[in-house]
Amino acid sequence: MNAEPAVQLRLLDLQALDARLDQIEHRRRTLPQLARIAELEARYAGVRDRVVAGETEVSDLERAMAKAETDVEQVRQRAAKDQELLLSGRVGSAKELENLQREVESLSRRQSDLEDAELEVMEKLEDARSALATVTAERDGITAEIDRLKAERDAAWAEGDRDKEWVGSERTKVLLDIPADLLALYDKLRADHNGVGAAALHQRRCEGCRMELTPTDIGRIREAAPDEVLRCEECRRILVRTPESGL
To answer: Which keywords accompany this UniProt record (predicted)?
Structure first.
């Protein structure tokens, strides 16, 4: 294959632009914010479940608290009525008076037991509300951090898109100077060699594989016509001669 030396040099321009595009895509995929967002989102799922469990516990305890308060109030009212009746003098017989007295004492013990149960539920409810407030704050903090990181990610992606657009426009200009057959060879080699299809010969070293050429290879290159498209014997990439080739 043959191409004018100036055209071959344009291959290096194309390679530089393609490398820039690869770098942009690499940065897009490897932004540190992405790993942190994934980590926080996984953590958020667990914290969210704890919030739901905490809300459920608080709700259950609030219902239990309401029931305990109702039970205590009912016993308190019943005891108050019996106590009022006991003191009213309306109870005629000693037997009825004795039974009423025993009922007042029983209600008093019942009220004490219910109040103890109510206090226990109240303490559990306070603990549950405190725990819920803590885990809710943790969830909200994670959400805020994810939002901040996503904003940074989106800003970085937008900057990358702007760079990509500019590089793409420059690449389009370079493509106009490269024949189809040479471009096809370059694209194939780039696909086969980690994104590098053409490399400069710099100070007798291939910039693609970083190998120094042998004297035999240097002699072959010296004898080659200026428009001959050369290949590195080591990595088989297109080898472009430049004023800094050291020939």
So the answer is: Coiled coil
What is the domain count for the chain? 2
Residue 169 lies in a domain: no
Same domain flag for 90 and 130: yes
Taking the whole predicted model, whether its pTM rises above 0.70 is answered as: yes
Asked whether residue 108 falls in the same domain as residue 225, the answer is no
pLDDT tens for 206-245 read 999 999 999 999 999 999 999 999 999 999 999 999 999 9
- Three-state DSSP at 238 gives strand
Amino acid code (one letter) for 242: T
13 vs 106: which has the higher pLDDT: 13
Indicate if the pLDDT at residue 100 is higher than 90: no
Contact call for residues 225 and 2 (beta carbons, < 8 A): yes
The single-letter DSSP state of residue 22 is: H
Sign of the torsion angle spanned by Cα atoms 108, 114, 120, 124: negative
For residues 153 and 165, give the distance between their C-alpha atoms in angstroms, rounded to a whole number. 18
What pLDDT is recorded for position 33? 96
Collect all residues with Cβ–Cβ distance below 8 Å to 17 and sequence separation of at least 6: 167, 170, 171, 174
Last residue of a domain, one of 106, 129, 161: 161
Domain membership flag for residue 167: no
What lies within 8 Å, CB to CB, of 10 at 6+ separation is 174, 177, 178
> pLDDT (tens digit, 9 = 90+) per residue, 124-135?
999 999 999 999
Taking the C-alpha atoms of residue 133 and residue 58, their distance in angstroms, rounded to an integer, is: 11
Q: Is the pLDDT of residue 92 over 70?
A: no
